[in-house]
Amino acid sequence: MSGEERAEIVRHVQAEAKVGKALKNIAMISLKPDDLASPASFQMAISRLYESIMKMMESGGPEQTYIAEVRFTDDLGNPVSIAIDLGKETPPFSSQKVKAEITIRLYEEE
């Protein structure tokens, strides 16, 4: 290949998204499937969540933002979900459900 050309593959994926509010710095708080395995593991998870919430409140509280949860199915049939931060201002959409187009570009770095 010449100096200006590079090999790349580009795919466009159609998806659906749901727009809503979320607390930005609360992402560190989550439940795992193991947390629901027994009453004891659930109690430990609740304690971990409580500690995380208390630390978050001590550091100034949560920051509210709008996000779009984008869902699509990959080429192997696996469900994929990603979140896109839309910022603090109300998005300009008339509905919570919107369409999304995802562009994936594969290439080698030089």
Key words describing this protein structure:
110 residues; alpha+beta; four-stranded antiparallel beta sheet; 18% helix
Description:
With 110 residues, the protein is of the alpha+beta class. Helices cover 18% and strands 42% of the residues. The chain contains 1 helix and 4 strands; from the N terminus they run E-H-E-E-E. It has a 4-stranded antiparallel sheet with strand order 3-2-1-4, with no helix packed on it. A hairpin with a 5-residue loop joins strand 2 and strand 3. It is extended, with a radius of gyration of 20 Å. The model has no long low-confidence stretch (mean pLDDT 88).
Helix content: 10-25%
From the N-terminal CA to the C-terminal CA, the straight-line distance is 12 Å
Structural class: alpha+beta
Total beta-strand segments? 4
Radius of gyration: 20 Å
The percentage of residues in β strands lies in 35-45%
Strand order of the largest sheet: 3-2-1-4
Q: What is the number of helical segments per DSSP (H or I, 4+ residues)?
A: 1
Low-pLDDT regions = none
Mean pLDDT: 88
